[in-house]
Amino acid sequence: MIGPDQWRPVDDLVLEPNAMKAATTPDENVVVAAGPGAGKTELLAQRADFLLRTGQCPYPRRILAVSFKVDAARNLRERVRRRSGTQLAARFDSLTFHAFAKRLIDNFRPALTGYNALSPDYRIDPATRIAGEQITFADLVPLALEIVESNAYARGGIRQTYSHVFLDEFQDCTGQQYQLIKVTFGQSTAVLTAVGDTKQRIMVWAGALDGVLQTFADDFSAQPLPLYQNFRSAPRLRRMQNRMIAEMDPEAVSPAEDLAGDDGAIQVRGFDNEYDEAEAVADLIEHWLKEGVETSEIAILVRQQPHLVAAALGSELTDRGIPFRNEQESQDLTAEPAVALVFNFLRVINGDSQPDAYAEMMGVVNRLSASEDEGARFDSQLKRMLRETREAVREPAFKSGELATWRPLVHEFLQLVSRSVLAAMSPGYQQGTRLDDLIEQAVEAFGREIAVDGDAVAALKRLSETDAIRFLTIHKCKGLEFEKVVVLGVEEQLFWGNPTTVMSEFFVAVSRAKHHLVLTHAKRRERPGQPVSRWDVLRTQHQKLLDFAYED
Ligand SMILES: Nc1ncnc2c1ncn2[C@@H]1O[C@H](COP(=O)(O)OP(=O)(O)OP(=O)(O)O)[C@@H](O)[C@H]1O
Fold it and tell me: Which segments constitute the UvrD-like helicase C-terminal domain (predicted)?
């Protein structure tokens, strides 16, 4: 352990004065409002290191970090683990609001009474609530709120556990989520750090509270500590962001002299139709890849219906053998433990050295063996099966490009693991068809990728975090950053609705780019083959948004 005065930011980062203050304040609630790329998430990781390393968060107390998305919570957890080491990071709980609420319910369930009373083996279902037995995701936060509102023992327990609380992307906090934080930690000794950017408030449709950063500052007597830097984007891109900020939040505009420089590029490209657009964007991507840009540093952003709007680009990339991933689909999938197990099994039987996948897979399956004897028997059966399967896939006759050859192998493995073990992996798997549906989706996703070139290792790589160009919705790209960003379809027909929300979403999209931003629009987009609720064939460029791309 070191003294607070001895602590230096991890990785030798230089923190601006307010960031340093927010990272190291021992006992003050703070709210850090700052624009894109200012280092808000980084600041939370640094603060976690400070609190754990200096003992300001004294053992055995813990830090709670609450985020909105599974990816964001995982990113922050990983960042802290990498920086501070596994031992210290073990006292850092990086959870989504849903996961935090579920923890409260699991730990203090008997506090729920009457209609809300729940049996110990309650289930969570996406849609249907059954009194006493099954709740939906939407019930989690209200039930957790009922627990902390009605039960002083629960409030005391959670306050005892956490000495510090972090709130990331706090501009998108809903009324219920805010209440949960306020009732749980208001009037307590917990020290709270909230970070956010009102210009990136894109969850209004989901009930994000207007002015929540100010409300938090008032309710928690939190000191506002604005940040002014942007570590992400090159000057040309920052000037475009600044033109948008001038309209969205004039007080936050940066002085022109801070944004001088020629680094960075913005292109606006108009096309007659989506096929011309697909060809031109694929040419650009091919060019970037030849220049040595990593696939994981390229993102294609679409406001809505990405699988339809980006379909032509997807086929063009497939024809050229350029890997891409529809994030909406596969990233949600890989967060599922059953899907991760299937992919890890495929990695183990295909790759020569896959220690992480092997350890993860064995960790899951062994954890669940009932007795030592049974465990040993199961272990040897599984190892034999893996050995034989590895040999089989190496046979020249093995048709690796066809899904039909893989499907029985996956099912044989899952049968060996057993239904009860699979069902125990997640509360949602015990009822209905969710488990089978997920396994089928995992196999299908692998099938689509393996069809590209028959290379299983490459297919699995594309299905994992890196090594593929990502197609994302704007909601999914929150908090992420890429060298090259293409916003596909800057058109009235895609960027419609409440003008403030449209601006915020466009702002989130353009501010993901580090060096190069491409904005496209097309005059026509053919109606997709599949049924679709709303589709306009004729398109109009969104002039107001595109105008921000041009210097005066
Ligand atoms: N003090 C710093 N010095 C150098 N680089 C930094 C610093 N703080 C953050 N960065 C880097 O700047 C980039 C943006 O940081 P981060 O993602 O934390 O910003 P953010 O404010 O959360 O952005 P956004 O709100 O747009 O998602 C990251 O690549 C991060 O590693």
Answer: 235-479
- SS3 label, residue 274: helix
DSSP H or E stretch at residue 195: strand 191-196
Q: Is the CB of 232 under 6 A from ligand 1?
A: yes
Which residue's CA lies nearest to atom 1 of ligand 1?
15
Q: Would the CB of 36 count as within 6 Å of ligand 1?
A: yes
Q: Which residues pair with 459 in a beta bridge?
A: none
User: Could you give the CA distance from residue 526 to residue 274 in angstroms, rounded to a whole number?
Assistant: 8
What pLDDT, in 10s, does the model give residues 434-456? 789 889 989 988 887 787 668 88
Structure-block tokens of residue 48: 């976690």
Pocket test for ligand 1, best of 40, 42, 245 (most atoms within 8 A of CB): 42
What is the bridge-based pairing of β-strands 513-524 and 482-487?
Answer: parallel
CB 508 within 8 A of CB 474: yes
pTM: 0.80
Q: Is residue 41 part of an annotated ligand binding site?
A: yes
pLDDT > 90: what percent of the chain? 59
SS (H, E, C) 223-263: EECCCCCCCCCCHHHHHHHHHHHHHHCHHHCCCHHHHCCCC
Cα 213 off chain centre by: 22
Q: Find how far residue 50's CA is from the centre of its chain.
A: 25
State phi, psi for 232 to the nearest 5 degrees: -95, -55
ipTM for the whole complex: 0.98
Task: State yes or no: 39 annotated in a binding site.
Answer: yes
Q: Whole-angstrom Cα distance, residue 331 to residue 296?
A: 14
